[in-house]
């Protein structure tokens, strides 16, 4: 087996380093956290074990969509070791939305369900107990009676007339962007482009929700301090975002909370929502003891917010020579029952269209849709990744239909410096042409001479 | 069923503690003995991050009721670092950038220790087989395999009398 120890090719930079006095690029720098990891001394949140630690477990919705007729916690309180059962009435500002910190409205999600549940697994009651086992027994003993409501699990069905209303705080089954029903792009005239095109291709793409599945599950340990503050040990990816949102939910000044974090056992976007800290803080104040709330593996897979499922329909006007002259995109992001980060993710998807191509006519409607599914949220390039899957699949299918090299099709349409993009921005620093040329070379894919002469900074070959 | 006193030889030292019935080896290591290198990732034997060596064999400690291994010799990552010196596996993990978030690292190193104990000159397939029960969700498997091969090489070199 051949391998090298350093992931950096130090030889490549040797000449540059000789007389500049710069020494970092091209040199191997040990990770600052590696020694802690290989000795087991890195402190993850669950390695904190304060005395008198109590445990929190959630009783979760057994329905996709239902009115809550009654909640009976008598049996839960009778479980030996159970200390308290919290309901929505115990949470100071129970209804929130995480992006309110950047001005997103409305507050649309309860920390604990009030009169309705909107997805399977939604938190209803929080049980605090002496041991994890007692908390689990207590959570299982909570009795909730439901009046079932019709549910909707598909984005297009959710937007139909007469679909069940998922989220009353939103008021309709889509997020409203500055008075509009979706995030839109209007550039040129796609219908005229379709009329003039040699070919019109329309295909539909669908992705599933994707769970980030970190090996360390989402959780926190909250420790009341002698000075009245709460110290939160968390595996959040966003310490200050979590601190601020938690303080807003608790209705306390920000300086009453202290977050100890930054060590995350895998996140990938799944630890950006603020879902365990607020209720663990309420619990720690209620019993005046340290409280741990950590998802078990099943919760991590079922209720931690995944990458949104998206449905994308792309209709393209294409000329015989491969130029794409018009692109119409209808995109649906399945936000699940609550907004979380999806209004932002949908905007990112819109900003990414029509891909890295100069297309003179672009029309896009990007819908952020509420359904009775697990709320979706951030994951590695959310909004962009699935759009790319659809856009690049579309390019391959067009190339196949025209009998054209798929790289040539992309080179013909790739944006160049100075092109006006659909968002009225002038493209600068573009490099798609050069990246494709290099990739072709590395893959041993012969590009014809005219393609090899193309450049991002000239119109050569167009 | 009452709790009972359980005795183990952990990293070469005899340790006694009180265990509730059904308590797992992982819970006892972490909560009774304060050895936190082994992690809880799934609590169902699927992710490998809780791996420790029981009588030299890698075991998912989250699935082992501690009373079933009473008296056994148990080795954790803390025992690998005894004396503050890193061994070949640990130093190769650093040099080969085989750690990312670090949550799977303890389990990965313990399966590597067990492998090299039994087979000082493993093939790449042997290494892949050995770590196949351990999940690295950062998906850094390639550097992990490279690090274990490198550790084996360093350990063999050290063993050659000069």
UniProtKB/TrEMBL annotation, chain A:
Record carries keyword Cytoplasm: no
MF annotations from Gene Ontology: iron ion binding; oxidoreductase activity
Aldehyde oxidase/xanthine dehydrogenase a/b hammerhead domain: residues covered: 39-150
Keywords (A to Z) from UniProt: Molybdenum, Oxidoreductase
Keyword match Metal-binding: no
Protein name from the UniProt record: Xanthine dehydrogenase family protein molybdopterin-binding subunit
Provenance organism: Nonomuraea longispora
Automatic annotation (TrEMBL), chain B:
Keyword hit for Phosphoprotein: no
[2Fe-2S]-binding domain ranges (all copies): 76-148
Domain 2Fe-2S ferredoxin-type, first and last residues per copy: 10-58
PANTHER family per the UniProt record, alphabetical: OXIDOREDUCTASE WITH IRON-SULFUR SUBUNIT, XANTHINE DEHYDROGENASE IRON-SULFUR-BINDING SUBUNIT XDHC-RELATED
Keywords assigned: 2Fe-2S, Iron, Iron-sulfur, Metal-binding, Oxidoreductase
Organism lineage string: Bacteria, Bacillati, Actinomycetota, Actinomycetes, Streptosporangiales
Name of the molecule in the record: (2Fe-2S)-binding protein
An annotated Gene Ontology molecular function: 2 iron, 2 sulfur cluster binding
Pfam family for this entry, one: Fer2_2
